Amino acid sequence: MNTLNALSLNNTRRAENLIIVFNRVPKVGSQTFMELLRRLAERNNFEFHRDSVQRIETIRLKPSHQQELAETISALPVPSAYTKHVCFTNFTKFNLPRPIYVNLVRDPVERIISWFYYIRAPWYYVERKQAFPDLPLPDSRWLRKDFQECVLKGDPECTYTQGATHEGIGDHRRQTLFFCGHEDECTPFNSESALERAKYAVETQYSVVGILEDMDTTLTVFEKYIPQFFAGASEIYHNEIQKFNKINKNSFKSPVSEEVKNLLRQNFSREIEFYNFCKQRLHTQFLAANLMDLN
């Protein structure tokens, strides 16, 4: 990333299978991006696939389940796009062709605030109850929690202990986990090892990692680096999706002060470093693509 070389930044040309894998991080605009992929599938003649809604989301898989996932995706007709909340899975480890990996990231502190209120939104539980009628409803006191108060009171839900681990989709704190992979060393929160593994995966395996806060640059880079799938992405996003559809927009979020955000940033230092790394790479790709021919 020290040179504006579009070819060296273009992992798409290293793909061995015309299948997009969007192993989506929660609360980074992934629902909107999935809707964009659906519409692009019609425009650009590829198939769109997503995993089924699950009662318990498992994102870190055993090797046998990693292989099963990789085989399922590899068997899709080409060209296709597939999306699932899951850690980066190395297809070549199972002697399967390398797909085109993409993802999005978001400011880590804004993302955890968004998640806190997202899982308390009324429509979230309506959707969950419709899918799984026997799910119990949460305690009303839990639903009424305020994020800022939760942080300042040292509530365990809003305490982000360095090196702590949690399993499942509930461990919403770490974007790096989705890039680091399934190994145990990827699980400790805000760890140096998980950070470096995640950076390496982005540099060597991902065609594009977009930034939620900069969708114009993000969509331009997608169009430049993966044109077969993303031609027309900016037009569809601005004219059809952003203009008319606020997917998963939560009007129940309470404001959080900069003082509290700064407290959180101290614990999210490596997650923030990873976010800034992805942002730098995206902007470098943007500049390189405008200076050189990618073909």
Write a concise synopsis of the structure shown.
The chain has 295 residues and is an alpha/beta fold. The protein is built from 13 helices and five strands. The protein has one domain (11-291): P-loop containing nucleotide triphosphate hydrolases (Rossmann fold).
SSE blueprint and pairings:
Layout: E1 19-22, H1 30-44, E2 47-50, H2 63-74, E3 80-83, E4 100-105, H3 108-118, H4 122-131, H5 140-143, H6 147-152, H7 177-180, H8 192-205, E5 206-211, H9 215-225, H10 227-230, H11 233-241, H12 258-267, H13 269-291
Parallel strand pairs: 1-3, 1-4, 2-3, 4-5
Please give the CATH architecture.
3-Layer(aba) Sandwich
Task: Give the mean pLDDT.
Answer: 90
> How would the global form be characterised?
globular
Determine Rg (CA atoms, Å): 19 Å
Report the span from N to C terminus. 19 Å
Low-confidence stretches: none
| Domain unit count | 1
Task: State the CATH topology.
Answer: Rossmann fold
Count of helical segments?
13
The largest β sheet comes out as: 5 strands, parallel
| SSE succession | EHEHEEHHHHHHEHHHHH
Structural class: alpha/beta
Protein name: CLUMA_CG008223, isoform A
InterPro entries: Heparan_SO4_2-O-STrfase, P-loop_NTPase, Sulfotransferase
Subcellular location: Golgi apparatus membrane
Pfam families: Sulfotransfer_2
